[in-house]
Amino acid sequence: MNALVLRKLFFKIDSWIQKKASFINHQEVIKDIYFEVEISVGYFLILSIANLIALGGLLLNSAPVIIGAMLISPLMGPILNVGFAFITGDKFVWEKSIKKIAISVALTLIVAAIATYLSPLKDVTNEIISRTRPNLYDLGISFLAGCAGAAAICTKKSYLTIVPGVAIATAVIPPLSVAGFGIGTGNFNILSGGIFLFFTNFVAIILSTCIVFYLFGFRPSTTTEEVSQLKKRIIFLAFVLFAISIPLIYTLHKSISEIKLRKNVESALKKNLIKRDILICLLSTI
User: Fold this and answer.
1) Which tops the pLDDT comparison, 154 or 137?
2) Taking each helix axis from N to C terminus, what angle separates 26-36 and 76-88, rounded to the nearest 10 degrees?
3) pTM for the predicted model, two decimal places
4) Cα(170)–Cα(136) distance, rounded to whole angstroms?
């Protein structure tokens, strides 16, 4: 009985997805993606400006400034395109997007490192520390945000309101700015933490965009070779996801333990203060 109910449920979900996918203008979406993969000076200029703004917010410990940098950063686009190429097997989009991301990461690290080295402010702020210890929640948030971004690209609905929110949730530029700060100050722990957070977000976004694009009907050709290549890519992505989940689970467990320890210490201090106040009151009455 339960198996029959599940089959009916899956059938209804599949029918709903196919119905939604039939309304998607696939050619228009592909056209936008092909336009997005082109490398331009303007793209790297905006990226560098967003990077410097994010670095300034990190050094000043200002969350609003960092959010502003995330809003203008164009790095989210190429990452979403990688997810599209991953699921469809489009080699042109794949090569162009990977090249664009590689140059973007290298440029961001170099600019942030030079700016940090020249800056009189080199203190490790709370905003910097918070981006050096990613956990499983960061992976989940980036996954959900990537789903929203990919769905907005496919449906063109609420694109102008959803994409800025996705840019803030995924936070792909601040971790690279943090890594650049680590290079500029010679701090390997900060460098590795920033890179790992960026890579965590990167993998989660690719995974979520693959799922969304697939559900909306973007798939490779049905040839045996293409299907085989898709299976290999999925297995590789699953392996990477599993590999990064292990340290993410560890950092989450460590963070929870630290929070519990902090609460216990605060509770013990409060009890001691209460006892001291009572003792002072008793002594004052004598």
Assistant:
1) 137
2) 130
3) 0.81
4) 13
